[in-house]
Design goal:
Layout (H helix, E strand, L loop, with lengths): L1 E8 L4 H14 L3 E8 L7 E9 L14 E4 L7 H4 L7 E5 L4 H7 L6 E5 L1 H7 L11 H12 L3 H10 L5 H12 L1 E2 L41 E5 L5 H5 L6 H9 L3 H9 L5 H7 L3 H4 L12 H11 L13 E5 L3 H12 L3 E5 L8 H4 L8 H12 L4 E3 L6 H10 L2 E4 L5 E2 L15 E3 H9 L9 E5 L3 H12 L4 E5 L11 H9 L3 E3 L2 E9 L2 E14 L5 E14 L2 E4 L3 E2 L24 E3 L2 H4 L4 H20 L70 H5 L5 E4 L2 E4 L9 H5 L5 E5 L1
Parallel strand pairs: 1-4, 4-5, 5-6, 9-10, 9-12, 10-11, 12-23, 14-21, 15-16, 15-21, 16-17
Antiparallel strand pairs: 1-3, 2-3, 6-7, 8-26, 13-22, 18-19, 19-20, 24-25
Helix pairs in contact: 1-5, 1-6, 4-5, 4-7, 5-7, 6-7, 9-10, 10-13, 11-13, 14-22, 18-19
Length: 735
């Protein structure tokens, strides 16, 4: 009988090594026995495993105290206690980069024989484990096979019983060839007993061939681990419904086209959103607790600009749908309906599609080439357009007769205003609406050379108008906003850009009236303070008595909000995300800001898709709309094992310097590559790191495809897998 004792640390695979060698010897006709014992059920704790090999059945269930040979997975474990009991002439196989002579010199006078193999380097080279926690057992299996005179192919075949392949096989072969033995020692294999004639091979895992019986858990483990993907916060918060984690994972694999295919499942406007989205996902990114959120917006832009993907369209259907409005909601709805086979025609009052994306977002934020790139993708699905077609109530009723359904996505047409004692101009006066100003600026039909400009408001339109005014030659530009920076709804990065460009911002300031003093126009204002929250959830601005003051100006631009125009809808129509309007011959599905008043491109895209899918369910009975997962399934930062992740400096976009922003050239140039995606923590979604499998002290976990499965009959419920799961995919549940 040959008795081998294996010493290692939790996570290195010492027990599995014993089982691998036993399985290989069993294939060569031997009786075998392999089992392990743990000093503590944690990673890094000392672990012993035992292997017996004999020609006869083995009946000794005890640990091995006087081994014939030792295998040491971590040389830092060497101590008199470990070496104790080793029989004279026995081999010690070390995992180390040093030569056998190094250890032979240390053990001068002792009758041990030394062999070494650099299993750690071999494991890292072949991608086994990680650089910090390499899995060395399969390499050592190859080295031990050489020492024991075993057929390496028997070892390789045994790997199949454990589901090992690829790098494990390569590691075993390399170790078999590179093991180093003291030169004066007998050749490897001499201490191995003669092998009996081979018998029919079968797995030791399901045959009783002398191994100590496995001990099942019984009833004492009252909790057990469960593997289940959860909801990443970025996915949960995205109004467009994008699989943010999914497309970032594709980028981590350097597959830009796959990332685009994932995005196109939910949004047809990735190049647009990658430039103008407020970054809802980034505001919730758990990476913020390390060195800052992943720049998802810039990565979406990169995918939209560089990815290539075919769009699968189902078989054509008989139903025809009219889409009223060519903004983000209408375009999104048209896209998804066209994919599902509907005949789609978009009706829009403008001469080009895009809505406020074209007329209200300056080109230094959204170049028209990027907008057209995304729109062309939608039109390629066979979507028809009727431009310069303003739809009123009468025309809407006609559409309900001519089409099987109508998707109404007319956006926010009515502009909010405030009485400042003067009439608003129509592009000719010095007091005008922000949307009107931006439209004229986009068409090159307005200039503000040398003017002192005041913009009233705190949203994106206000900030865009202010920045555009500077580019159109304004002497000075000032934003007044009645709340603080914290309540300002504009995209924070755009506010920063505006300030960098020279825009002044007066917070807690409200306009009162416009007047003239000695022929000079001036805006009277009043200081404010914040009171209790209003219906919007923001603190209500309250005037401070006696705080009035005047600001000289040449032009005032009002950008204080917009509202939906409901005049085209039937009288008394109820807007609901759950039910269409049924007053006409065909159902009318409201979508985008007409329904939600969210005011962002991203939200409009999501609403347009959802209403399109609801329409599809009505005609086909097929429910494709997925409800938002419960918030309790969202993985927050306190569930992530942050200490498992290395710090990575964020990759920043190339940005035009502030002093060079004199024209409408795009300010943010995007990322040069996709390395930023590798900062994604993959919160709540398993990325096959297999730390759970590596550190399980009982080996009751295994990977089956994309999932981890547990052998609960042998699981003790120790929770090591939970503590080692970096992404909170495994949790304990009462058994």
């Amino acid at each position: 009988m040959i008795e081998i004792r294996i010493h290692g640390r939790g996570g290195q695979g010492g027990v599995t090594l014993a089982k691998l060698l036993a399985a290989a010897e069993h294939r060569e006709g031997k009786s075998v026995q392999a089992f392990g014992v743990y000093a503590a059920e944690r990673s890094g704790a000392p672990v012993q495993a035992f292997l017996r090999i004999d020609d006869e059945p083995i009946h000794n269930p005890n640990q091995i105290y006087k081994p014939d040979h030792l295998i040491v997975l971590d040389p830092t474990l060497i101590s008199p206690t470990i070496l104790g009991g080793l029989k004279p002439g026995g081999f010690i196989l070390f995992n180390c980069e040093k030569s056998p002579e190094h250890y032979a010199e240390q053990e001068r006078g002792k009758k041990f024989r030394i062999a070494t193999v650099d299993a750690t380097s071999i494991a890292v080279k072949n991608g086994l484990g990680s650089a910090s926690v390499p899995i060395v057992n399969t390499a050592l299996a190859g080295a031990a096979a050489k020492l024991l005179g075993m057929n390496l192919e028997s070892v390789i075949d045994a790997f199949g019983d454990f589901g090992f392949g690829g790098g494990n096989i390569a590691a075993a072969r390399e170790a078999f060839e590179t093991i180093r033995v003291q030169k004066h020692d007998p050749e490897p294999g001499e201490m191995h007993k003669p092998v009996k004639p081979p018998v029919a091979t079968h797995s030791i895992l399901d045959e009783n061939s002398g191994a100590a019986p496995a001990i099942k858990t019984g009833q004492w483990a009252n909790h057990q681990p469960v593997w289940e993907n959860a909801t990443p916060p970025c996915n949960f918060i995205c109004p467009a419904g994008n699989d943010v984690q999914g497309f970032l994972d594709a980028l981590t694999d350097e597959d830009v086209d796959k990332a685009l295919r994932i995005l196109l499942e939910t949004t047809p406007l990735p190049s647009v959103c990658g430039r103008v989205c407020p970054g809802f996902c980034m505001s919730q990114c758990n990476r913020s607790d390390l060195e800052g959120p992943v720049n998802v917006r810039a990565l979406e832009r990169y995918v939209g600009d560089h990815g290539q993907a075919d769009i699968n369209r189902t078989a054509p259907r008989d139903e025809r749908v009219a889409v009223v409005g060519g903004g983000p909601a209408g375009l999104s709805g048209a896209y998804h309906l066209a994919k599902l086979g509907y005949g789609v025609t978009i009706f829009d009052a403008g001469s080009e599609l895009g809505g406020l994306m074209r007329t209200g977002i300056p080109v230094y934020r959204l170049p028209r080439e990027a907008l057209d790139h995304d729109i062309d993708r939608i039109l390629s699905l066979g979507v028809n357009t009727e431009l310069d077609s303003r739809i009123d109530h009468a025309r809407l009723l006609e559409l309900t007769r001519d089409f099987d359904a109508v998707l109404a996505a007319t956006g926010l047409q009515n502009l909010s205003s405030v009485d400042l004692g003067v009439d608003l101009g129509s592009g000719k006066g010095k007091v005008m609406q922000g949307i009107e100003f931006l439209d004229l600026a986009a068409k090159g039909r307005i200039t503000v050379d040398g003017e002192e400009v005041i913009v009233v408001g705190g949203g994106n339109t206000a900030v865009d108008a202010a920045r555009s005014a500077f580019r159109l030659g304004a002497e000075s530009v000032r934003i007044i906003y009645r709340r603080t920076r914290e309540e300002m709804p504009a995209i924070s990065e755009d506010v920063d850009d505006a300030i960098d460009e020279g825009v002044a911002v007066d917070f807690l300031t409200a306009p009162l009236k416009i007047s003239r003093d000695n022929g000079k126009r001036q805006l009277s204002c009043q200081r404010m303070e914040l009171g209790e929250p209003d219906d919007s959830g923001r603190r209500r601005p309250l005037p401070l008595k006696g705080s009035e003051f005047d600001i000289p100006c040449d032009r005032v631009i009002l950008a204080i909000g917009q509202k939906a125009d409901l005049s085209l809808l039937p009288e008394g129509a109820q807007l609901s995300p759950d039910h269409p309007i049924e007053n006409g011959d065909a159902p009318v599905y409201p979508a985008g800001d007409l329904l939600s008043n969210e005011g962002t491109v991203t939200a409009a895209i999501g609403c347009g898709r959802d209403m399109a899918l609801m329409l599809h369910e009505r005609f086909s009975g097929e429910k494709l709309y997925e409800s938002k997962p419960p918030e309790e399934t969202v993985i927050r930062s306190d569930s992530i094992r942050m200490h498992h992740f290395a710090l990575h400096r964020p990759h920043h976009e190339d940005t035009l310097p502030a002093d060079e922003r004199k024209s409408f050239e795009e300010v943010h140039k995007g990322l040069e590559g996709i390395d930023e995606a590798k900062r994604c923590l993959s919160c709540g979604v398993c990325n096959a790191c297999d730390r759970c499998v590596t550190y399980c002290p009982d080996g009751v976990l295994k990977r089956e495809g994309d999932r981890i499965v547990f052998d609960y009959e042998y699981c003790k419920g120790c929770g090591v897998c939970v503590s080692e799961c970096s992404r909170a995919v495994i949790y304990m549940q009462a058994g």
